């Protein structure tokens, strides 16, 4: 059973309106106050009131149209034609009730354990979240990436992994070191240095020309003379000046004869020229290589990295550069003085030695780059270490909480299994009830019950009957043979049939197997437009449904009744004090187009008619008592019952009482037109008691003594009087 309903979004009701509900709920309000809006909201949103195995029955105009106007489906009533089977059925039904209660107890217990688990889990989550916040202050949010916004998600992960995390590899003492590296060491990776290209002097073609003199192979006297002077290189350089000296010696300016010029030009042969060309090539290639070596050494020197030791390299690099410079100088000299003999200096060993130093530096660079790459992984390593620290520091607490939560979860599963076991038992028992019902149920019993009530209520011009043309449904049957269309019924007859159908619908089944489904019943002004006779009958039927609901001896779990009729409201009020805690009263008012609902444990609806009874019960004045009796009889019999005159019941009194009856009626008539006084009417204490006796008998003789007794019982003590 739902204990509250939210009316958020419902027109005329303020947002946030929530109504507490009880087993039976009376809602009283004037027309236009918002009753039908509320009722339609429930009809359109049944899940606001019903649970599993419950059906919402809304008794309103729609119910009457769909269930009555559009054809009345037969209702199976389960009679007493087989006592043995009925006894077995009742026993099974009693067992079902027991099983349902046990199932509900297990469900409630399971809900309690779930709530207990949630509470324990929330407490656990709060504590470890606080410790996590302390770690974040020291090491940042990234160490708990993915678990910084949801406390419960983090707590759940801790419970799952704390045992594994506490055993994870890793040195907790490295946490601060790694944190410093991550946040303070911003160095990047470094490219390795290029090794110097190693070439031996002996790798160059014609390298031998460097270590031997290049002389002319001419045998003329002049060549021999210059060769003896070892002055051929000077002569070679001077040859080029002849083209500018106009056949004069470029040094002494003497005119050269043809014979000298011929011998001078013949000093250097073609072979000599080829050797000079080869020498120039090797000098050019060797110099180019040496320039590349110097360039590579310079690039390494200008791109050295802090933190690496370049001392050995620098020493050897300087020595190598010196050697290169010396070699290049000698090469230039050799080029200009081909006869010069050079000592061949091979740099291969020196360059290889320098390369070893470069390689050593490169190994340091590679180690550095590896650390850089490792540093990129440090956040993940640090995160795992922080989780390990977290789990280690909180291991005992996490273990105890996990044990507690697992224990509660075990109880939740156990209760769930018990719920399923009860549900299985209930299903088997309900199947047995369905089997029994097939033997003891029929729709004629319902027709008979409705027809008996119609006759008892004085409706004899029509009855219900099983439709022979459409088995399983009911039709109107008129003994006079008139139109059997249900639409020919008067408004009062039509609504009475609808209410009787509802009564049996809630106590029967639309199939030959009795339904175990329970009901939540909502009634929207069930006596609207009814006359007083029909209203009395409707009140009696409604009170019967309320009593069955409150006393928990039917399949009605909850009732919600809306009405604007004060008389009907007062007639259906539940009077017993034993189950008054299961009743709630609600007053719907409307102001400035805003509906408001006030809920109380006791009814606050009183009519003028009730106040008359209250005054009658409390009054010590004969005059006041006579006035109350007159107004009660006039309102009840004329307005509510519809009796034109009380004279019809005079014959029901004996002769002596008729005299008192006449005196009471005369007094009443007197009070209708004037105020009692000693001149007009005199009534003493003894007489008033005789009038009260006749007053009661008038109700008895008009079949209304039940109403009299109810009103007297309610107001004699004065406890319910305003």
Task: Spell out the blueprint of helices and strands.
Layout lengths: L3 E3 L11 E3 L3 E6 L5 H10 L9 E6 L1 H9 L2 E2 L3 E2 L4 H57 L11 H16 L8 H10 L36 H9 L2 H8 L2 H4 L12 H8 L4 H33 L8 H26 L11 H46 L1 H46 E2 L1 H13 L6 E4 L6 E5 L13 H15 L12 E7 L7 H19 L5 E8 L2 H6 L11 E9 L2 E7 L7 H11 L3 H20 L13 H19 L11 H17 L3 H11 L7
Parallel strand pairs: 3-11, 3-12, 4-10, 10-11
Antiparallel strand pairs: 1-2, 5-9, 6-7, 8-9, 12-13
How does this structure look, described?
With 722 residues, the chain is of the alpha/beta class. Among the domains are: 4-74 and 443-600, Rossmann fold (3-Layer(aba) Sandwich); 201-367, no CATH class; 608-715, no CATH class. It is built from 22 helices and 13 strands. The chain has helices at residues 35-44, 61-69, 83-139, 151-166, 175-184, 221-229, 232-239, 242-245, 258-265, 270-302, 311-336, 348-393, 395-440, 444-456, 491-505, 532-550, 566-571, 608-618, 622-641, 655-673, 685-701, 705-715, and strands at 4-6, 18-20, 24-29, 54-59, 72-73, 77-78, 441-442, 463-466, 473-477, 518-524, 556-563, 583-591, 594-600. The strands form 4 sheets. Strands 4-10-11-3-12-13 form a 6-stranded mixed β-sheet. A hairpin with a 6-residue loop joins strand 8 and strand 9. Helix 11 (311-336) packs antiparallel against helix 12.
